[in-house]
Design goal:
alpha/beta, TIM Barrel, 8-stranded parallel barrel, 8 strands
């Protein structure tokens, strides 16, 4: 999937299921989400999970630090790219994003906004490694989206601490291209741009 195709698929529903528990895999398939962020599984089952979502037309990003039994080094990334074959990866580590880019995987840099130093460092890091998107955490601070958009042209996804439909809609009003949530009750909520 090229970058433009990824953005178009994100825009179909503008919701991403962030799956933290195996028991929520089926629930994500039952809802209108553009794709999934997998934060569960292990090296023995992750290919099955990836193939399941890809076969249903959903993009799949693996949060590498959350996949059990996977060593996140050059060989581990080679294994993910050549055997597991997800759409891409999510990481807080710019070195992983940089290596994944070289392997042809789509990438999302996760940035935690804890203070102004974290904001500055996160934007500088993203402008250097050039991920396909930035996931700003927590997602309940939509005014920060506008600030980050003035500092970089990389598309923004928000996630974290989102617990209501309104909290899902607000970041979209401020320029986010999608919202990720680990709350299965919100995966079925219709939001702006949802088709």
């Amino acid at each position: 999937m090229n970058q433009q195709e990824l953005y178009e698929q994100i825009k179909t529903h503008r919701k991403i299921a962030s799956i933290k528990y195996n028991k929520h895999l089926e629930r994500a398939l039952e809802n209108d989400v553009s794709g999934v962020f997998l934060l569960t599984g292990n090296i023995g089952v992750i290919k099955r999970y990836v193939d399941l979502f890809l076969s249903k037309g959903r993009f799949v990003f693996l949060h590498l630090e959350k996949i059990g039994g996977l060593q996140v080094d050059r060989e581990g990334l080679d294994f993910i790219a050549s055997y597991v074959k997800p759409t891409g990866v999510i990481s807080t580590k710019s070195s992983i994003i940089k290596q994944a880019n070289k392997l042809g995987l789509r990438t999302i840099q996760r940035v935690f906004l804890v203070d102004s130093d974290a904001l500055q460092h996160g934007v500088e890091m993203c402008n250097t490694v050039k991920p396909d998107a930035i996931e700003l955490m927590p997602g309940i601070i939509p005014t920060m989206i506008e600030k980050v958009k003035t500092l970089t042209d990389i598309p923004i996804i928000t996630g974290g601490l989102i617990s209501t439909a309104e909290e899902m809609k607000e970041p979209l009003k401020h320029g986010a291209i999608a919202v990720s949530t680990g709350n299965p009750a919100l995966w079925g909520v219709h939001i702006n741009g949802d088709s």
